[in-house]
Amino acid sequence: MNKYFLIISTVCAMLFGPGLPRSTGASVVVDRVVAVVNDEIITLSDLQREDQKKGGAARNEHMVLEDLIDRKLQLAAAKRSGVDVTDPELAEALTEIMKRNSMDRKQFDVELAKDGLTYNEYRSELREQITLSRVFNKYVRSGLILDEAELRAYYERNQKLYAQPEEIRVRQIFIRQPDNETPSQAAAVKERARTAYERARKGEDFVSLVRELSESENAAEGGDLGFMRRDHALPEIEQATRSLKPGEIAGPLPFASGYHIIRLEEVRTPVTPFDRVKDEIQSTLYQQKLENTYRTWLQTLRSDSHIENRL
């Protein structure tokens, strides 16, 4: 972060007229007030320094000024309510920062200088940040409670957020194709599959047809393949079921091993159980409530204060 000041040094030796004293050399600070917050001011140089902290020209200067106003209001609230940071606490925080970064005081000063900061300037900024954190905790974070009913209500309103991939349940009639079959055998197998499909299409009980005709291992159980993710099914079955409604039939679907006549039994979109997403919901709702409470608090601070934006 670059530190800079809008200071123009001038040396004036002008005689304004008879009897007027000669002026001496002086430093003239080129600055102006861009905002008044109760009995405090924010200057153009304050605004520019803050903009530099945020990378310079990264945000609209009006937004940067609004942030500065909010900060002034929060620091004033901290002062009114006795929220502060003692020197020992600040020293402990600085020691911890240097320790975390494996630096001694000399190394720390060198790194600060790279950002255009002195140790005392950094110390002052850190005190302010800790104060802001504490006053935020006092007026915003403390007292925020989420009960089970709120979490469940959010879960019920947002089922789509917790939906799992679509699943299908299918029954099949499988007509096996023998190895090394002759053309006539192949034709006979194909005809058997076509006949099975027509009987099913015309309304014969599908489970009965499975038990009568199917050569699959689960024929005795009615050919039920159970639930599977649609996108994990064999491509031919996945594609065929796309155009089916529950109770409708497709086939015969040719495979290397034989023909499948399938009936779509059920389609479902499972939802992740509440207990598995409870912590995620709590985090989401807590953050929402935190942000809303913070905005409301800032609005209250602003409405109770005298603010002039002169930018």
Tally of helical runs: 10
- What is the global morphology? elongated
Please, what is the average pLDDT?
A: 87
State the CATH topology of the domain at 164-268.
Chitinase A, domain 3
Largest sheet: 4 strands, antiparallel
Number of strands: 9
Distance between the termini: 23 Å
The CATH architecture assignment of the domain at 164-268 turns out to be Roll
Q: How do the strands line up in the largest sheet?
A: 6-5-8-7
Q: Gyration radius, to the nearest Å?
A: 38 Å
- Beta-strand percentage? 15-25%
Helix content: 40-55%
Spell out the helices and strands N to C.
EEEEHHHHHHEHHEHEEHE
**Assigned CATH class of the domain at 164-268:** Alpha Beta
Q: Which residues form runs of ≥5 with pLDDT under 50?
A: 1-29
